[in-house]
Amino acid sequence: MARALNKLTDRRVQALKEPGRHSDGGGLYLRITPQGARSWLFMAAIGGKRQEIGLGPESSVSLKAARRIAEKMREAVALGTDPRAALPRNEDAAPAALTFGAFAEDYISRVEWAWKNPVHRQQWRNSLRDHAAAIRDKALADITTGDVLAVLQPIWLTKAETASRVRGRIEKILSAALAEGHIARPYENPARWRGHLEHSLPKQPKLARGHHAALPYADAAAFMAELRKRSAMSARCLEFTILTAARSGEALEATWGEVDMVGAVWTIPAEKMKAGKLHRVPLSPAALAVLAGVRPDKPQAADSVFGITGAPQSNMAMTRLLERMGRDDITVHGFRSTFRDWAGDATGHAHQVIEAALAHTIKNKAEAAYARSDLFEKRRVMMCEWADYLAGVKLEPEPTTPDADAIAAALAAGKLSPELVAALAKAIGASEVGKVEAEPAPAEPEQTARKPRREKKPNPHQTALFGG
To answer: Does residue 342 sit in the same domain as residue 381?
Structure first.
């Protein structure tokens, strides 16, 4: 049965607002991103794999032009040739008018679903918006090496890591535009590094990787006291992030539908987690108090907990808060290290419980296969202790007791000190220490007198043979 074609109309195209792919039939779709970007897309099975080919933004390519392109692409697929060759280089698609900004938004919307971290998605858009504004309205094919250098040079040394990421993102976007036929060949990417920009930009200062600047846990209570004096929503978000030892993106993206105030648990969906696995976070009374303080009268399940008018805050909100507090020497992510150091140094909680609280993946495959529990109740105890510590409550250290080997050795030697007696009484549940007494060592058995050895009578046969 042939697929229906031309399902959409010009009026229908203009009226569509819902994010997603809207089919016109024959592999042609109008894609609308959650941010409102609109573009045409052709989908087909090529070489046994389903592929997507962008035809350009809806603002530049009309429905009629998109249908003509899609028809040529269907013919190319039927003949076994590359449908990208059917992308027109004339007024139908107006590739010369396709700007870097329009194509960048279309490209990000097509690939961002593979990025697990929502903060990463936002960083792509924010970095290009903040640092690549000079090329946003330029036609893709008109962007030169000079344009890229103008974007990178102001931040190349002062914001080394950001500049490196911006360069890589520009390179990827231009390479995708070339692959999709929006830039004519032959073409050399002006944002490429090796053999090109490496000769025009100075060597950057060494990037610090691997560890985020963290607050020593001994200073955590004093920091929290200062933080709680601030009324900004970013302050409440940071306070909640610290209390739960969560990643900043998880807290920023938290919605009221994920929070169970009665059960005192925050359930983070798998798609928001770095490991791609659902994670339950026990909420201490202090964390619940933060939520109660920001909770609207009638929260909607999809509303952001720490958002402004229901929308999530920028991923830089808490970083800017730290800068305003004069603490640009530490990072938001570093508070997870602060928690880890406290839990490992100042408590007796098991390593597995601490790692589970941080939602770390167990790297040992054999160990991971047997780790069926998320240790939720043990984590609840630990997170309540963490909240108390942050409030300045000192934990009483548990008295140390001799281990079983020491007690066994003392019993064998018949030498039980009062401390060992008390420990043994506690272990066996004796109500009175006096009931446990050291038994004297068993006495050496007395030596019994041996009977005199009976003399052997000579064997007459031996005497006869060998002589007496």
So the answer is: yes
